[in-house]
Amino acid sequence: MSYDQDLGSELTGTTLWRDGWPVYDRGETVCVIGAGPSGLTAIKNLKEAGFGVDCYERETGVGGAWNWRHDRSPVYASTHLISSKPLTQFPDFPMPDDWPDYPHHARVLSYLERYADHFELRPHIWFGTEVVKVEPADNGRWDVTTRSTSKYGGAERIHRYAGVMVANGHNWSPKMPAYEGLEDYRGDVIHAGAYKDSTQLRARRVLVVGGGNTGCDIAVEAAQQAARCWHSTRRGYWYAPKYVLGRPTDQVNDQLLALRAPMRLRQWFAHRTMRLAVGDVTRFGLPKPDHKIYQSHPVVNSQLLYYVGHGGIAPVPEIARFHRTSVELTDGRHIEPDLVVLATGYLPRFDFLEPELLGLDAHSRVSSGPEGGAESRPVVVGRPKLYLHSFPRRHPTLAVAGLVQPDAGVFPLAHWQSVVFARYLRARQSAPQRAAEFGRRIEKEAGGSWHEGRTTDSTRHWFEVSHGLYLRELQRALDTLEGAR
Ligand SMILES: Cc1cc2nc3c(=O)[nH]c(=O)nc-3n(C[C@H](O)[C@H](O)[C@H](O)COP(=O)(O)OP(=O)(O)OC[C@H]3O[C@@H](n4cnc5c(N)ncnc54)[C@H](O)[C@@H]3O)c2cc1C
User: Cβ(145) to ligand 1 under 6 A?
Assistant: First the structure.
């Protein structure tokens, strides 16, 4: 559906006015922002609960991060799932049996496209349309301002909705660390978001910064393609293999969860397994992990240690500062890469919402990218204070989907988040007492943690959840709203 097409017949209700601008009242329709995996499942579940749904997607296709055709997509040519197939797929739409345990990103996109087609979601999506503002209106309703992303621009339009589900993703706005001397450095520096395939590394001396899954993937590619590869990490990690006992690692953990094995027992088992399969990582020159396994989002990579062991990757500590032609490390060494890849993660951004609506706890103005243009403008970043990383206090008709970093796949959690949201919106009409009880739960528990381990305040850990614990809490929320349909 294109934005200008047949808008009139899409309107169910009256036109209101706000500060001299027309506001098209969409009645009980719910707005979804973004058509990535979380937005798609939100459209489906709201539709199934009987709501009209308008979804706005600024890109021209579905799939979000998994759609590599989109400029902001963080996937690179070799990206495969890190969470295995059964723990990633939506509960009501399995991936094909003949697909491997860890499908390639192109397959994940085709899965999402099939999902959109199967549940007839595309007619609800306004592609090439960006949400620029979401403001509270009366009775828990929301005024959503949108604008066409076409190069010819277009007028802003405001529609009023009964609820808004924000599914804008948190893996597209690069987190750029500040380094002394970086502006005078003569080598190339890119963020991992701009890394697309290994030809960018070929025959170059590459420094990869960051010990997360992306940093490890790129270091492994550099080991095979680059003239030299240094891998800088600031702390020790557990490098879990993709398979344990012949099964995908997350499935083994999930089996133990299903047997209700307590965290300590699972940690004991995992430490034993790691000792046997991986051994002491300090032997490879890597820092010792400073946390227990499962206390932090796992790094799943079977190849990193292999390439360290074969001399393809040289582990190095943090960067102290940049000089014109070299990089100084915290151990005093100087290295001379000609390409630095910053795999330093991404920041959540909600530019269209006033920070207090999500209860952002700390606001700092940061510049988000070296690439210039709109993405490098200052933005407000903070940690939203939400119940289940989804529901803001005082604004229960607004919810966020997909703002989680689980020890398994994101899709099933986003699915159940939107089921809860749909049930809540329904309960407001048909079971106000249950809805009020859910509202009180949000008030009380917003800002909690649904993660079994201790996490640091690093943005990398803000949204970590243990999927078993998290799903149980979602079930509790559903139980509160049960009977509300
Ligand atoms: C390298 C890499 C590997 C990963 N591996 C896994 C994995 O193995 N398993 C897993 O479960 N997850 C993985 N993830 C996480 C991945 O982000 C999620 O799987 C998933 O994409 C989250 O979906 P989402 O819909 O919440 O966000 P996204 O996929 O980011 O989609 C958000 C959508 O919202 C749109 N949007 C944003 N702002 C606006 C606006 N203002 N107006 C209109 N539209 C807007 C965007 O264009 C986008 O289409 C990985 C991520 C990366 C970077």
Answer: no
